[in-house]
Amino acid sequence: MFPLAYAPGVQTLNGLARDDFLYYGMLHQTVKGRNKIRRLRSGMIQLYYTHKGDHMSTSSSTRGPDPAAVLGSTQDQDGSRAPITIGETSMLVVALVRIFVGYLWFQQLFWKLPPTFGGLHTFVVREVGGAFIPGYGTLVQNVLLPNFGLLGAFTFAAEFLISISLMFGLFSRAGAILATIMALQLYVGLSNTEWYWTYGMLVLLAVVLLPLPTGRRLGIDQWLAPRLQVAVENHRTARWLSWFV
């Protein structure tokens, strides 16, 4: 058993250079044979290395491994786990969806601009009678409306962060989480006042972006992810932040 790492500019296992990502782990099981899969484990990170050509089977890119793009696993012939991967074209399509969703949130900022947040007030008032969760309308009427200035500032800031995160692929999972929360709030408060799937689809668009590292294609996360992985051994904060890219 020995530690294995992929680092920028470093020759790694079998002399193959990997400059995209750095991972660390222990060689858990080696299956002999040119086309067999080698399984690596480090904490919750699992990599599957295929020794055919110059290919990493977990990679959503042809250039290097991306374990976050592995959605699940199936049984291989020898009983080990084989990854279910997402191809490069599929990742690019999902990245374009991410940019579209980010622009959707960005576009909604212009009818609730500070300092008055005028357009927002009408929808908050509608939530008083339109919410389907008992007591939510009372909360809006007695807590949120009397503090509308604070609510407007929070809403504008949250939607601005969502749009920047998703459009530019910067901590894209964090943006997807925040988008899910905001969309759920809209669904609870307004789905009874309009066609309910309007806000239901907004929730689903955000949820779709949660499991995948969509910012690692056409986004800043593609540059940020390997640098966080370099720092993950020495900095707990980097370990925590690496999940959001």
Structure description:
The structure is a single chain. The longest helix has 21 residues, at 148-168. This protein has helices at residues 88-107, 118-130, 136-144, 148-168, 172-190, 197-208, 221-231, 236-242; strands spanning 3-5, 24-29, 37-42, 45-50, 72-75, 81-84. With 245 residues, the protein is an alpha+beta fold. 29% of the residues are buried. It folds into two domains: 3-86, no CATH class; 90-216, no CATH class.
* E-strand count: 6
Structurally, the number of domains stands at 2
Mean pLDDT: 75
Structural class: alpha+beta
User: What is the strand arrangement across the widest sheet?
Assistant: 1-2-3-4
Quick overview of this protein structure:
With 245 residues, the protein is of the alpha+beta class.
Task: List strands and helices in order, with pairings.
Elements: E1 3-5, E2 24-29, E3 37-42, E4 45-50, E5 72-75, E6 81-84, H1 88-107, H2 118-130, H3 136-144, H4 148-168, H5 172-190, H6 197-208, H7 221-231, H8 236-242
Antiparallel strand pairs: 1-2, 2-3, 3-4, 5-6
